[in-house]
Amino acid sequence: MATYVYDFSEGNKDLKDLLGGKGANLAEMTRLGLPVPPGFTITTEACRAYMSSGELPPELRVEVTMALRRLEDTLGRALGDFHDPLLVSVRSGAKYSMPGMMETVLNIGLNDASVQGLTKFSGDERFAWDSYRRLIQMFGKTVLDIDGDRFADALDAMKVARGVTADTDLTAADLHELVEQFKTIVREESGREFPQHPREQLDLAITAVFNSWNTDRARLYRRRERIPNDLGTAVNVVSMVFGNLGENSGTGVCFTRDPATGRTGDYGDYLPNAQGEDVVAGIRNTLTLADFEELDPTSFAELRQAMRRLETHYRDLCDIEFTVERGKLWMLQTRVGKRTAGAAFRIATQLVDEHLITLDEALERVTGAQLSKLMFPQFDVDADRTLLATGMAASPGAAVGAAVFSSATAQERAAAGEDVILVRRETNPDDLGGMIAAVGVLTSRGGKTSHAAVVARGMGTTCVVGADALDVDVVARTITVGDVVVREGETIAIDGSSGEIFLGSVPVVPSPVVHYLEEGLDAALAHLPEGDEETAELVRAVDRVLTHADTVRRLRVHANADTAPDAHRARSWGAQGIGLCRTEHMFLGERRVLIERLILAADDGEREAALEALLPLQRTDFEDLLTEMDGLPTTIRLIDPPLHEFLPDLTELSVQVALAQERGESGEQVERDRALLAAVQRMHEANPMLGLRGVRLGLVVPGLFALQIRAVAEASARRLRAGGRPHAEIMVPLAASVMELFLVRDEAERLIAEVAEAEGVELSIPVGAMIELPRAALTADRMAQAAEFFSFGTNDLTQTTWGFSRDDVEGAFFSEYTERGVISVSPFETIDRRGVGRLVRIAVEEGRRARPDLTLGVCGEHGGDPESVHFFHEVGLDYVSCSPFRVPVARLEAGRAAVSSGGDQTR
Amino acid sequence: MATYVYDFSEGNKDLKDLLGGKGANLAEMTRLGLPVPPGFTITTEACRAYMSSGELPPELRVEVTMALRRLEDTLGRALGDFHDPLLVSVRSGAKYSMPGMMETVLNIGLNDASVQGLTKFSGDERFAWDSYRRLIQMFGKTVLDIDGDRFADALDAMKVARGVTADTDLTAADLHELVEQFKTIVREESGREFPQHPREQLDLAITAVFNSWNTDRARLYRRRERIPNDLGTAVNVVSMVFGNLGENSGTGVCFTRDPATGRTGDYGDYLPNAQGEDVVAGIRNTLTLADFEELDPTSFAELRQAMRRLETHYRDLCDIEFTVERGKLWMLQTRVGKRTAGAAFRIATQLVDEHLITLDEALERVTGAQLSKLMFPQFDVDADRTLLATGMAASPGAAVGAAVFSSATAQERAAAGEDVILVRRETNPDDLGGMIAAVGVLTSRGGKTSHAAVVARGMGTTCVVGADALDVDVVARTITVGDVVVREGETIAIDGSSGEIFLGSVPVVPSPVVHYLEEGLDAALAHLPEGDEETAELVRAVDRVLTHADTVRRLRVHANADTAPDAHRARSWGAQGIGLCRTEHMFLGERRVLIERLILAADDGEREAALEALLPLQRTDFEDLLTEMDGLPTTIRLIDPPLHEFLPDLTELSVQVALAQERGESGEQVERDRALLAAVQRMHEANPMLGLRGVRLGLVVPGLFALQIRAVAEASARRLRAGGRPHAEIMVPLAASVMELFLVRDEAERLIAEVAEAEGVELSIPVGAMIELPRAALTADRMAQAAEFFSFGTNDLTQTTWGFSRDDVEGAFFSEYTERGVISVSPFETIDRRGVGRLVRIAVEEGRRARPDLTLGVCGEHGGDPESVHFFHEVGLDYVSCSPFRVPVARLEAGRAAVSSGGDQTR
């Protein structure tokens, strides 16, 4: 027989699975000798048994009886007693905290008889009837599912009838009458009498708590927080203590350090003559702990001692609920407290300095998500703001600027010193200039991995996408939302962490942590306002933890960067190489025309001319990049343009040509458009993502890859001759078969040897494969025969493994899918371990078996996602590569992964 | 030390890997005691050693010396001897026959001295000098790489000078002079003397044969025939015998049965006083074997005996080359002969009747490709025809009809009794009516798995696609190719097996095998012209072999069929169920409008109205289908429309709206178009293949799947009440996660129970998953928790595993990829075992582990591909499903797979 009931004296804090968080911690405090009101916990196992059978297990009823008898014996009181009744609270408590989600019933044990006993015990008739009134009200709502308004209305009516405004002004007689009214409501609404038998009250309350596990709001909350649905909740039955028995009673909440800032020292609120729910309801203003000390120094001293005891015991910030009943302190709850990002770093290093935890443990106490929160400037939450709409949070930060509707305007106004926010329906590579110039990017279409989102994230520019409530008209240069029209030049503000879009300006708070990351500790500290010790402590804490992460991590951290300035930033933020240089991003403006000409070339002559014009440009690109990344690996991906992004839009061009014809226009331009339309029609692809891309394009368009390989080799040779240490690597995109790799590798080897010969240098430029198709992963043993390294392109790998187009899919049904629980997190944000992750695992194992010195990395968006970094550590990659802005996060998480895997993961 | 040389007396026919086909068979004939000229074989291992080191292995030189000495001893002649010289031929011989690809040098051993010896031995000076002339010519061309025209020109000049026209009119003196001229050519062209030392001749000839393995044409041939590049060739050194030593000499080729028709009895050609190369060159008309018998009854009798001996020994049709030298028969080569499809079936059953092979073996002697050749009507190859262009062969057959350019015209003219060929740039579901009405379909765009190709193949309609030389103008209703213009109504002919398009009519030969398959053996035989015993034998042979295949196969064969008439045909051709009913094909014409309305519905009312109109239509569809398939499993796939196929084209509609605006048009229609355009823009997907499809659409559009599930359940209930045996199954398309399956399954269970209750019947309708995304395969253990069956959709699985869109990719670079050896066969035609196949294997193993009674099938195009059928047998599927027309092929190949796996594959 399973044991369904644990007395507080039997459990401990490590039994959260079984006793829930609250129960386990109550047991732990009891074990520590702290003053916890006696009670017992009904296990999550009992809840699961209830959920599967639909009724309370018979053994549970017996065990509850035994536990109740023990409780009555301990306290010398009995449930329902006419003289000195035992009252208990029934509270839910799951493994993971689900604040406000589930049910509590207080004052179980009160009935028409024991209310007299309570009067005697408390000497306060009003208190006794008020307690009874509260029981019926809570019980009716929670257990009997009666609309709470019925009770609230009756209470209000009574106050009106008595001509009073506060509950406390009602007399014992009023409350007695109200109890009778409440009983009538129960009878009318539930068709039954309010149960007078205390054990029946208790059993029904326990059942109600179990049932509350499966309410819609609880399920929704769990989905959002990714808590499994089958855990169930424990139930705590605790003997009641009362903070509302006069001025020498009260109730409070306290923390062992400030959870908002991380400041050391006690912190909390106290409310005299009140119960816990009164604190939550915020009816009266609370007092500080200092006030409490003044009111009741003995209780405060005892509390102080308990706080110290708990923090030492839990070795972390504790969050405590307590009650004083007529001068006697009772501990009602404790847990490791939640805290802000800044507090997390400060507290972690404080505890190290206090020799309570090690630096390894400090590293486990903070997260990459917290670090990235510290990195973004944020809107001042206290300021006035007017919400215009909400889109998807695509790249964090807080940006304020003039709305502009074209790349050209953005560059123009930015050059004139103005902060601008580029607003587009969606962006394409032509918008890049404007995106670089803008402080923020806002689109009305596209998902979190749309062009706008990916590029903005790469640049660390604040970005909100897919705000479909906005009607963006780039011709009229307006945003329309209902009646509101925003014209070009008007100020808007976007919050890339929340997706909110505000009308007008909102004040912004800058981040000292970014100063530190960019310029180092000393510079960042020097930059702080005189005497801002708190922030200084925070910056030092970040430095200490991050430095430790760098020491312990096994994963190297590279950055995705396409230009020398990107590379510079990446390096200053700690990137140990470039894991992905997307060369197609180099083809903008003039060069894009050359690429278009190359792809649409009618003959070899046209093609050769385009190639010849491109070679010196590309060589300079790579030389600059290799100069910036001197001594560090620099992985250059051969061009992988989605064809349609490099050609005019079919629909727009068709309309243009049709209109020209309709208007009877003629001339050279019309002829050119007509010819271009024919070419675009010929090259048009129904599914460009699955079309002529990557290595396919490279093998079909003569000279394209050769141009780039030659440019890389020549740039390397020049750097070598200039005394540099270039470490270029060439990456082949979208290979599905080893044959593709062999063809490119053979050509690369030939070209590199040619350049080495011509330039008189020794060139070693490894050629590797981007693993971004399921087939590449499934045939990794063969791919490794031709590739010296693998880099997982997990964006595309996710698209093909799931058959989702990231552009199309996120808007269309992700919200529906999240709502219905099909997915809990977008597989484009956090790697899907079961599907995509399995392919990665297969490729790592089989690739390395075929070539033991194969270098393995990841360069998809997941490289900067905390949870995914842990996965990549586990499967044994050598590095992750992410956008420069995410490099610190990846460094931290790689350190955390190394610590939490206990270092037994040697590669 | 490896043995590089095998005497003919040492090898046997099973050593083809080592000795090549020719060498192994020469050894086998020697072992049988047949008169083979003595000789030896240099192994493929020697060739591989040569290819890797670039020179002949030294051990090889020694072994050749030993073998030559043995040969000289046996024959009592010596190489280069002045009195009675030994001459040898040097011939290539790889494991797989590569006709015409590689090199041969005859008469090695002749030089200025031994030409005298040959004169003495033969008593024919002219013959000796002619042989010498031939040696220098062949050697010069083959070994020394001299342009053959130099020799041919000199020969022609000599004939002109002598005033003769035939080689044979040149005298010994002329030939002697020609030898000297040839030597001069050798000196001039190669910078060296023609080697006089016989051993040097031999070594150089061996090297030349080895080198011929790696010529471009040989590599190309191997790529086409899928022969590995690293096998290498063997070299046969055979003592020369001469068929050109007078009228009692000669040479011939014979077969033990007729390889063209399969008729029993000898069959061959004989050319007196000639060498083998003369037969190939076709200079003189050959004689029949009967003529040969008359000329030389003794040699003929000996040949006859050898033929019988060989056929009995090889237990198959043998193809033999022989030479008679002055009345003595020599066997120069034998091998199992190639044959036509019809001959294959006839010979296989003949050999069974002759008790030479078993029926199991007969089954292994024929292929599905041969059966399908027998099924298609073909153009009469002897008729005059004018080739217009060549496209891709998409669905075999030979169709002749009037070119029509719209579905409506096709239906109209076909209804009037005319044969029509529907010509379109590409087809879409709206063309289906026309495609059904047409005898053939021709498109200028799209690949082998485009809509046109897939649908035509499914219907067994002849189809050629992607004929991009055709300029198809559906408005002007013309096809233009260069100067040629074909107008609507003019006759064209298309060959779906070759992709050829002919101008005008071409006579067609119908298939008796189809009569058999459709109507059974007796009906087919009755249908034949009086006395056509040959065809009758063929039809009986097909029946016997196919019936045997049905007996031994483990795989069931289902068909992909969307309508009751399809199902009827499938069933008559032997389908044991429907493996895939594509319900989206049911939504044409009026119904398509309803689906469009459903998808674009602005509110619940519109949606409900559309659903209500569709329910009775769908119910009737399914009732008809289940009636036709009474008693057999019928798998109905819930609707999976690529969204764009059900909506107007964005570009066309944009042009239309822009033009209307330009023209200042207004009115209701303009407003409607404008609204429609907005909706289409909203729903537009960059990559529809990866977009809102399959189960995603079903979960997003309320009521869509429920409609279909209800229709299936109600149709089943009606069939049950009518005494039928419906076995409907519901298949969920495009699931990537088990959660999607659970959601649909739960809804299905609820609806089915509801219908069962309402109709008062017991309904059992399994719900399963189409496995067509990598993630579905990778998480098969979980998918199996919700699915009662899996059906692999290998088309889509191939698209996502490779990241190829079949529509876009085939045209764009498949030809380039095939040319460069990246792929040898389209993975859309034959399953890619290494990539896609691995996913299938994973899903089969892990799915079955999770649910041991899981039913497993395949419903992609691969279900009817012979090689793929063997794979599906190996991995243990329960059934394959293919288009009705391919059902007989699948039955045959499933039988062959069972026989060749030795039946040890229990599931």
UniProtKB/TrEMBL annotation, chains A, B:
> Quick one: which residues bind Mg(2+)?
772, 796
Q: Which residues form the PEP-utilising enzyme C-terminal domain?
A: 543-895
Which PROSITE patterns does the record match to this protein? Answer: PEP_ENZYMES_PHOS_SITE
Positions of the catalytic residues: 451, 859
User: Pfam families annotated for this entry?
Assistant: PEP-utilizers, PEP-utilizers_C, PPDK_N
Listed under catalytic activity are:
pyruvate + phosphate + ATP = phosphoenolpyruvate + AMP + diphosphate + H(+)
In alphabetical order, the GO MF annotations are:
ATP binding; kinase activity; metal ion binding; pyruvate, phosphate dikinase activity
User: Could you say which EC number(s) this protein's record lists?
Assistant: 2.7.9.1
Instruction: Identify which cofactors the protein needs according to its UniProt entry.
Output: Mg(2+)
Task: State the family named in the UniProt similarity comment for this chain.
Answer: Belongs to the PEP-utilizing enzyme family.
Stored PANTHER family: PHOSPHOENOLPYRUVATE DIKINASE-RELATED (PTHR22931), PYRUVATE, PHOSPHATE DIKINASE 1, CHLOROPLASTIC (PTHR22931:SF9)
Q: List the protein's name.
A: Pyruvate, phosphate dikinase
Question: What is the protein's species of origin?
Answer: Cellulomonas bogoriensis 69B4 = DSM 16987
